[in-house]
Design goal:
The structure is a single chain. This protein is an alpha+beta fold and 522 residues long. Helices cover 46% and strands 16% of the residues. It has twelve helices and 14 strands. The strands form five sheets. It has a four-stranded antiparallel sheet, with no helix packed on it. A four-stranded antiparallel sheet has the order 2-9-6-7, with no helix packed on it. The protein has a two-stranded antiparallel ribbon with strand order 3-4. Helix 5 packs antiparallel against helix 6 and helix 9 runs parallel beside helix 11. The radius of gyration is 38 Å and the shape is elongated.
């Protein structure tokens, strides 16, 4: 019986095309498109080019053309904002919580105010429309020596009126395990509200009667008429993101200025820099490869066998390239051609110089081992000079980074100290005089934006210069610039873009009055 022939497997491991250049171009193009989109979003918000009459950012007028009239000088109403998904508002919970100790009969009362929109904000088609509902919820509990019965009531006085309107009453019992609660569907903003806590003296008299402590909470879902993602200047702030005690607005319009440049240069620069580091790792082992190749040749091995033997050695990032050279030599390709193909794959001046030296010396005749040693020494000397340059330039790179950190540190301090002081000195919106200096009314966000643009320009310039000095490559410069811009974005959003300075609407709250209203009867 004839034996079955065994199959022979041959792994050619043909050299693959280098896709790093095409990958770099794809990353660069995607980054450029995303960066241009970010800059377009920034331009349509920053009022530098487009200034619609209605005061809305241009992108909102384009995104919701059926909601806003760009030619309306009065600007959009609350009802206009509610028809656009980007500006649709939701109520804010305003809460008043307080504890009253040792309350004696007949009780205590206190005034508070309910926030909301004014009539001017509710005008639609020339008519004042109904205010959106503002549900009010009241909860109360008390601790006492006995289970006394007490009552919580809410009253309202309209503006300019002395007539009291009863809103809500809740019957409660002290020491109850569950607090008593009640609610009303709508609390009209404006006027004066009063919180009354009343309880009677027991008929049998006795020892001192009091509620040791009374805890209560009044909450109202109020509306301020300013869209969630906007500030009181109708500039885009985006949704709020809380990072512990820090409130940030990462999608604020000015951030897109920095993000635009960051996306255009940083991803491609990172990729190019990583590819260059791989090439540098190959270059670092190349002199050792040439030296060992010369030693093997001196030992009597053929060039093909020498390269094949070295393919199993440890040359780090150079190992795959040596394996390719070994395979090519096994196919009958001349050693000189193999070296040229290797130089084309790596594509660096150092490798091309060494390969050219070996090729020309080989054509002129002579001992190939001496040629390889000479090329190895030449490559090692070039590597040494590169290291010397890196060490000499390192101090200058450090100076550039330190100057940038100092600059952004000064800007952050100014943003947190100087700008709030100037803004608070003329919070009324009019010019004021301090000594011989007159301070005009300023918008804090204007100064923050100017500072941010300045730091971004500093990051781009300093980073590009640092990279060019370090390696002579623009990609390294863009990597430094991207690192600086990332630091700029993080620090500004965490430390400079404070809610009060960028125009985030301040919650008015319930604003309870100081002191109590005297109660003379039950």
């Amino acid at each position: 019986m004839a034996r079955k022939k065994e199959k022979i497997r041959v792994d050619l491991q043909l050299p693959k095309d280098d896709t790093s250049q095409s990958t770099f171009i794809v990353i660069l193009m995607i980054g450029m498109l995303m960066g241009i989109a970010c800059l377009g979003f920034w331009v349509t918000n920053a009022d530098l080019v487009f200034k619609p009459i209605n005061g809305q950012p241009m992108f909102l007028n384009l995104a919701c053309p059926d909601s806003f009239d760009p030619m309306d000088p009065t600007g959009p109403t609350y009802f206009d904002n509610q028809t656009c998904w980007l500006t649709e508002e939701s109520p804010i919970e305003s809460t008043w919580s307080e504890t009253w100790p040792r309350v004696r009969p007949p009780g205590l009362a206190k005034s508070f105010h309910v926030p909301g929109m004014s009539d001017s904000q509710l005008i639609d088609n020339g008519q004042v429309q109904q205010h959106p509902l503002q549900p009010m919820t009241v909860t109360a509990s008390a601790a006492a020596y006995e289970a006394y019965l007490f009552e919580v009531s809410i009253y309202h006085y309209a503006d300019g009126s002395n007539d009291r309107t009863h809103i809500l009453s809740i019957q409660c019992i002290a020491n109850s395990p569950n607090p008593c609660s009640g609610s009303v569907p709508h609390a009209e903003p404006g006027g004066e509200y009063q919180f009354w806590l009343v309880f009677d003296m027991p008929e049998d008299g006795g020892s001192e009667v009091l509620l040791n402590s009374v805890d209560f909470t009044v909450s109202v879902d109020s509306w301020d008429g300013i869209p969630e993602n906007m500030n009181n200047k109708s500039l885009w702030l985006g949704p709020e993101v809380a990072l512990g005690p820090i409130s940030t607005h990462p999608t604020m319009f000015v951030n897109f200025f920095g993000l635009g440049f960051l996306l255009m240069v940083y991803p491609a620069a990172i990729y190019a820099d990583r590819q260059q580091k791989k090439v540098e790792a190959v270059e670092a082992k190349f002199p050792d490869f040439l030296r060992d190749l010369a030693e093997y040749w001196k030992g009597g091995l053929s060039m093909t066998l020498s390269v094949r033997t070295l393919a199993n050695s440890e040359f780090g990032a150079l190992n795959p390239e040596i394996k390719k050279m070994s395979d090519q030599l096994s196919w009958g390709i001349a050693f000189e051609d193999v070296l040229k193909m290797f130089a084309d794959r790596v594509g660096t001046p150092l490798v091309k110089r060494a390969v050219s030296l070996v090729s020309e010396a080989n054509k002129a005749g002579g001992k190939i081992s001496d040629i390889l040693v000479t090329a190895a020494n030449d490559s090692r000397e070039i590597q040494f000079l590169k290291g010397e340059r890196s060490r000499a330039i390192g101090s200058y790179i450090a100076v550039i980074w330190v100057s940038f950190i100092v600059f952004i540190g000064v800007i952050i301090v100014l943003s947190n100290v100087f700008i709030p002081a100037i803004a608070s000195s003329n919070s009324g919106g009019e010019s004021e005089t301090i000594g011989n200096m007159q301070i005009n009314a300023v918008d804090p966000l204007f100064f923050l934006v100017v500072f941010f643009y300045g730091v971004t320009a500093q990051a781009m310039g300093n980073g590009a210069m640092a990279g060019l000095m370090a390696t002579g490559r623009l990609s390294t410069g863009m990597k430094h610039a991207g690192n600086m811009m990332t630091i700029c974005l993080i620090l500004f959003n965490l430390a400079a873009f404070q809610p009060g300075l960028i125009g985030v609407p301040i919650a008015v709250g319930m604003s309870p009055d100081i002191g109590f209203i005297p109660i003379t009867g039950g």
